[in-house]
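To: structure desk
From: M.T.
Subject: fold request, one chain
Message: Could you run this one when you get a chance? Sequence is below, nothing fancy, just the single chain.
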Amino acid sequence: MSNQKRTHRAVAIVSFVLLASGTVQSTATGQQYEESLLSVPRSQDDMHQLREAQREIDEKSYGAAISRLHSLLRDARKGLFEVAPGRYLGMRTAVIRTLRELPKKGASSTNA
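Reply: Done. Structure tokens follow.
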């Protein structure tokens, strides 16, 4: 199977899963996201908070980053986070991945 066919098949499978799970909502329900007829919700605030936590990790402010990530786990809405151009993870998965990938020094931080 060619790469293009695999890509189209993967997109179709992901689209079906999102539609079946109720994650994607249409404008007919009264909710509109980014002026698209059919779109996955993305909370700009949650995405900003995750980026801030990643910045804090880069600056070795582990306590603040861990606190921010825990609050995202508790309060984040459903949606997606772009981890690379054209590559998305669910917000909760992106937060868990960020926590999992903390350096050992950060993971054992007493400031958290």
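Reply (cont.): DSSP finds five helices and four strands in the chain. Let me know if you need anything else for the meeting.
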